[in-house]
Amino acid sequence: MHIVHILNRFSITASALDQIKLSLRDGHKISLIIGKSDNINLNKDFKNLNLIELKGDFFSFDSYKELLNIIKNIHPDIIHTHHGKSGFVATLVGKKLKIPTLIEDGAQRDNYTLPSRILFTLTEILSDKVVFVSKAVQNSLSWIEKLLINQKKCKVIYYGVDTPKVNDEEKKRIKNKFNIKENEKIITHTGRMVPVKQQDKIIEIFSKMLKKDNHLKLLIVGDGPLKEKLFKQVKNLKIENNVIFTGLVQREEVYSILSISDYFIMLSKTEGHSVSLLEAMSYGAIPILSKIESFQETISDNLAVFVDENNYNIDEIFKKLNQIQKDEVKEFYNNRYSEKIMMEEYYNFYRNY
User: Fold this and answer.
1) I need a surface site. Which of 53, 103, 259, 311 has the fewest CB within 10 A?
2) Whether 274 and 203 share a structural domain
3) CATH code of the domain covering residue 57
4) Is the CB of residue 198 less than 8 Å from the CB of residue 284?
5) What percent of the chain has pLDDT over 90?
6) What is the rounded CA–CA span in Å between residue 245 and residue 1?
7) How far is Cα 35 from Cα 13, in angstroms, rounded to an integer?
8) Confidence (pLDDT) at 210
């Protein structure tokens, strides 16, 4: 099968690259077409990838003609798109050349600006198939969007992640790097520092947890525009000795951090289907989560602590955490999410035209 993936300029999403890597591993012919960009860095897992870069951005008549000629020459079995802008143009090309198209929707509708939302909806109307990464994403469509988009061509396919094993030596190295003592428990958060992630609420709750148990460390992995504000919040609360901002780290180090984590905290206002949460679950980190549909869909209530960040009880949080075993979280993840399950569902969906 020859699959073409289409990605916007500067929007090289991790989930798309995972799908491409796995399809290559499974022996499929894969082409990746991107808008003009300078930030893509592919490793040896992509050595058989046919990478094509447009001369300009997608949203121009010249780029449409260029894309039309490229697709016509390589003539794939399916065009898989991931974004509204490039997806819309690629879907028009697919219609012109009679090549099936699929659009993957990874975010709830309230995450989009109005122009982006309209463009995404138009693409989903025109595309032959639509994948939502969770029921929460599909449910976020308005009634008119659900009416306009043929629901019979839609399917929910969850992300699948297979994280690497981390050996004891690497775990020891990470603990030494961040000065974590043997009697300390680690709460980890990974994510971009932006308002929707509500890291300020995480820090607020953690500061109150410290008053009950001062053998806790919070590792905040990532960067973003709210970094300085969060630094100041930690300083004002006088909990600098217990909060570690790692900044941006290599992917392998994220896995190492998660492998030593007792808990994983994420209090987002909205999520499509969090890969970060799945990665944490794969290492058995017990989730502390906001009460949003996506998180409640991802893991059952008896294996996570769901927190109303505006009305919570610290004693209740600790009580629930003590009732959950890391092995139970890991087993739940292994039985429900994997790269193999995800890709088999995609291949079946590709073929079903």
Assistant:
1) 311
2) yes
3) 3.40.50.2000
4) no
5) 74
6) 44
7) 13
8) 94
